[in-house]
Amino acid sequence: MRKFIIFAALGAAVSIAASHGVRAADAVPKFDIARICKAETAETVGIGETLESCMKAEEQARTQVAGQWSKFTAKDKAACIGESSIDSTPSYVELQTCLEMATDAHATTGSRK
User: Fold this and answer.
1) Which of 26, 44, 82, 105 is the residue whose CA sits 20 to 30 A from 17?
2) What pTM was estimated for this model as a whole?
């Protein structure tokens, strides 16, 4: 009986967490562009990316993602938010790339949801 209660509680927790993840994808996420770009440019010293160019790219990606946000499936939004945040420096450029790839995959397979 005790195991059943534990598994039932665990199942409920997973279900609630999953639904919160989808609800969180209802709005374009708010990433800290300045923090993202400071971390990014610190790793790419000498490669040529500047803080200014990084911030411009992130802002452009955010604007484009926001403009198309309603066209993406909730599942793709949630998956791509997670994917773009995997290294603790979430990026709109990575989010945009993930969403574009998901859209292309749906177009290729003919599925949408």
Assistant:
1) 105
2) 0.71
pLDDT at 81: 96
The residue whose two tokens read 């791509």 is 80
Give how many domains the chain has, as a whole number.
1
Provide the residue range defining the domain that includes 89.
2-109
Q: Average of pLDDT values for 49-56? A: 89
Interatomic CA distance for residues 80 and 38, integer angstroms: 22
Say if residues 28 and 69 touch (Cβ distance below 8 Å).
yes
Rounded Cα gap, residues 36 and 62, in angstroms: 13
Q: Are 36 and 87 in contact (CB under 8 A)?
A: no
What is the C-alpha separation between 11 and 28, in angstroms, rounded? 28
Give residue 76's Cα distance to chain centre: 9
